[in-house]
Amino acid sequence: MVETRKVQVTGGSTFTVSIPKDWATANGISAGSEVEFYPEQDSLFLTPRTEEERTEGTLDITNLESDELMRAVMTMYVSGFDIIGLESGRITTDQRRTIREATQSLVGLEVLEETRDRVVIRDLLDSSELSIHNAVTRMRLIALSMLEDAIEALTELDEDMALDVIQRDDDVDRLWMVVSRIFRTTLRTPKAAEELGLPREVCFDYQSAARQLERVADHATKIAHLTLKIEEPVPDDVAEALRELYTEATKVVDDGMDALFTEESSEATRLANEARESVQAIDERARAIDELLRELDPARAQLLGLIVDSVSRSADYGGNIAETALQKAAPTP
């Protein structure tokens, strides 16, 4: 329900406005309480001031095992809890192992306390020191290097390189969790956005781009897994066509990311439009490769066709980043 208040002048020069009593009571605000104001363009956010710097959360894990428990810990982390208490009547050995694996797979977490019925995990990183820009930049570098190495592993049938690509997917996933955590924190409190030095809309754009980069890394991993199933060398004409397709797909992702990071709106718009227009040409090139695959036996053609699809989809994700960049560069209402 929207409530309105009239702005008044006290002391001849100070503007004052009252706050809703129900909201004040629900948030423990009374006479003498301090509140914090955060200006954001034409809006002014007000929040109760608190001395508590760490956000704590507790989760009953009695009926959670394996993947469910892993996802639960990750969800608490992404939601922004700094201290996570996991409780049960008796925490099993398997649960403790899963908790340790989850802790090691997330940036900044460590087990702070461990008893028969409780495990406490704490985030050691200071949110104000995290950079969503640096995290997304790192994701870009890793995801594109994974895609490059996946194509190289395929054309050279290099099993070790393919396995390395698969392992690096964990690095991208960890960064994706960090970006999601930062973004959700900025939604929950305006203080987080102020500490980051970025508007929440920009944080949303970065989070959207990070999601696309995470998908690029997933398709690089998929290519690596498929490579491990291929026993005979890829025909030279197919290998060359795949390299060209990869080069064009990578350019779409790079142009989209450059557009996103560019502050000058006209340049961002130019780069983003070029990236989006390139996607159609890549789809046509992918169809041409599919024609080449018709000359191969069905089993090989199917595997290579999946790889062509993954490279083509990576370009689509670059096009999605470019679309986000266009929205970011558009005039603000």
Automatic annotation (TrEMBL):
Question: Residue ranges of the SpoVT-AbrB domain?
Answer: 9-54
Name the species this protein comes from.
Halopelagius inordinatus
Among the GO biological process terms of this entry, one is:
intracellular phosphate ion homeostasis
The record's section on PANTHER family has: PHOSPHATE REGULATORY PROTEIN-LIKE PROTEIN, PHOSPHATE-SPECIFIC TRANSPORT SYSTEM ACCESSORY PROTEIN PHOU
GO MF, one annotated term: DNA binding
Please name the InterPro entries in this protein's record: PhoU, PhoU-like_sf, PhoU_dom, SpoVT-AbrB_dom, SpoVT-AbrB_sf
Q: What is the lineage of its organism?
A: Archaea, Methanobacteriati, Methanobacteriota, Stenosarchaea group, Halobacteria
Question: Can you say what this protein is called?
Answer: Phosphate uptake regulator
Q: Which Pfam families match?
A: MazE_antitoxin, PhoU
- Highest rank taxon of the organism: Archaea
